[in-house]
């Protein structure tokens, strides 16, 4: 087994991101393509119809902000925070993120102007990217709920990193190029910046609650790791060279990579590279895990052995909302199909509501009758005392035994064929988070106000091989812990 180490020292960032999990771990078992000598799957391992160029498949690894090896933890109070405090913080992040998603959509539907392409605060998973010529590595948050790619850049007037952390220096890269006011990257950018003549394209993004980032729209070479371990540079990636940020929730992080459906997200830009397939996939390590395991992430290839898909939808009322909307047709707890109206998860006529898959939100967020029905039936089947004063509904399981039944929750989603729904199964580890200090188990599902954007968060997605097949407009999955 290889190891992973992320360390900051004055003026330098050292990142070694490589780990393969042993099959016995039964957690994110990895991909069959990595078990072949060529790095390519055998014929019976490919379950989609994609024509994939395996010479243009890029790999990386994600690490959760609360993992003890993450740069965010190293820069914050991880070692002094209890598990219950981390779960409480995750609950606050999830609610804040849902509120902001909903506000952005409603603001856009009323004004015709999408407020901001990025939810830039309090994200969960970080990854390494190499930028510039010669390339330097940076740690950035990865987010399926946004589009913009940006880094802290010199000269940092007010950045989210300290000067000793050595942010990206455009003067030290031979491939750096500023976008001019007449470039499409400037004129077509969300909320186009105010420019003067043919000068540089300065941008400012406000994220609500007084937070913003500003800097210069620019182009750079991003270097990735290919399946065979070689370097794979991609030129002329549009990104924000940020010089002035007032942002929260970014300790130890250098920027953000948006993975949304918009044209400026990283997968959208990579899809323009000749021979590159517009697909990305990942398998997330559970939120509560602190073992030395790291989440796999791939650009340009579908997960193998995946045959379960649901269509991706856009928001017809607010096209600028680039979230990955899906159609949930119902929810079951155990064997009980809940009484929830079939159209409850639809996007409303004002663009609000709907339900999305999002890697940047920890918990799963449901509103109204959906949340009430799930909670009531879960309590009926999981007959343990409820612990009061908790960030989510928590259960005292001190009297549990080896024979205790932990209910599964099943999200029934529209199939690609439109026939019988397909099932996204939330196993106990996707549904219950451990409060290690008290022995309680807390529900990973919370309530949000009516009309909010509902979210299938990363705890629900953990231990599932997830594929975002943007070519065929579908999301696929397979559990790595169940057969």
TrEMBL record:
Residue span, Peptidase A1 domain? 125-478
Q: Which CDD domains did the record assign?
A: pepsin_A_like_plant
Q: Which domain of life is it from?
A: Eukaryota
Annotated signal sequence is 1-25
The UniProt keyword set, sorted, is: Aspartyl protease, Glycoprotein, Hydrolase, Protease, Signal
Family label: Belongs to the peptidase A1 family.
Q: What is this protein called?
A: Peptidase A1 domain-containing protein
Q: Which organism is it from?
A: Sphagnum troendelagicum
């Amino acid at each position: 087994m290889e190891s992973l180490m992320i360390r900051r020292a004055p003026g330098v960032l050292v990142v070694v991101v490589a780990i393969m999990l042993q099959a016995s771990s039964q957690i994110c078992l990895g991909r069959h393509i990595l078990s072949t000598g060529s790095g390519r799957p055998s014929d019976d391992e490919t379950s989609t119809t994609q024509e994939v160029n395996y010479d243009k498949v890029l790999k990386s690894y994600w690490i959760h902000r609360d993992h003890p090896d993450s740069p965010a933890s190293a820069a914050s109070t991880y070692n002094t925070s209890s598990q219950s405090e981390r779960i409480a913080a995750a609950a606050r992040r999830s609610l804040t993120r849902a509120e902001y998603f909903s506000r952005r959509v409603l603001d856009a539907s009323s004004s015709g102007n999408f407020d901001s392409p990025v939810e830039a605060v309090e994200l969960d998973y970080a990854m390494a990217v190499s930028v510039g010529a010669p390339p330097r590595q940076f740690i950035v948050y990865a987010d399926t709920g946004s589009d913009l790619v940006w880094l802290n850049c010199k000269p940092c007037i007010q950045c989210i990193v300290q000067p000793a952390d050595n942010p990206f220096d455009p003067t030290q890269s031979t491939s750096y190029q500023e976008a001019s006011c007449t470039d499409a990257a400037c004129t077509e950018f969300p909320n186009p910046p105010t420019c003067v003549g043919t000068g540089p394209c300065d941008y400012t993004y406000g994220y609500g609650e007084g937070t913003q980032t500003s800097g210069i729209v620019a182009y750079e070479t991003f270097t990735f790791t290919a399946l065979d371990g070689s370097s794979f540079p991609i030129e002329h990636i549009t990104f924000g060279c940020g010089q002035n940020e007032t942002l929260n929730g970014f300790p130890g992080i250098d920027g953000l990579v948006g993975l949304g459906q918009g044209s400026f997200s990283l997968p959208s830009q990579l899809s323009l590279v000749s021979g590159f397939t517009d697909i990305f996939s990942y398998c997330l390590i559970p939120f509560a895990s602190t073992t030395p395991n790291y989440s796999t992430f791939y650009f340009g290839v579908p997960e193998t052995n995946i045959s379960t898909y649901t269509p991706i939808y856009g928001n017809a009322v607010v096209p600028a909302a680039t979230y990955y909307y899906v159609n949930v047709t119902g929810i079951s707890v155990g064997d009980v199909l809940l009484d929830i109206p079939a159209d409850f998860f639809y996007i409303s006529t004002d663009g609000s509501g709907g339900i999305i898959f999002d890697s940047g939100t920890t918990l799963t967020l449901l509103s109204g009758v959906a949340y009430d029905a799930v909670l009531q039936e879960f309590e009926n089947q999981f007959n343990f005392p409820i612990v009061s004063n908790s960030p989510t509904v928590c259960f005292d399981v001190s009297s549990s035994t080896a024979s205790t039944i932990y209910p599964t929750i099943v999200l029934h989603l529209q199939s690609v064929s439109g026939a019988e729904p397909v099932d996204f199964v939330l196993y106990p580890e996707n549904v219950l988070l451990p409060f290690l200090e008290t022995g309680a188990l807390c529900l990973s599902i919370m309530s949000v106000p009516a009309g909010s954007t509902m979210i299938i968060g990363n705890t629900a997605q953990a231990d599932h091989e997830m594929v975002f097949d943007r070519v065929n407009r579908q999301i696929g999955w397979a559990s790595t812990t169940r057969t």
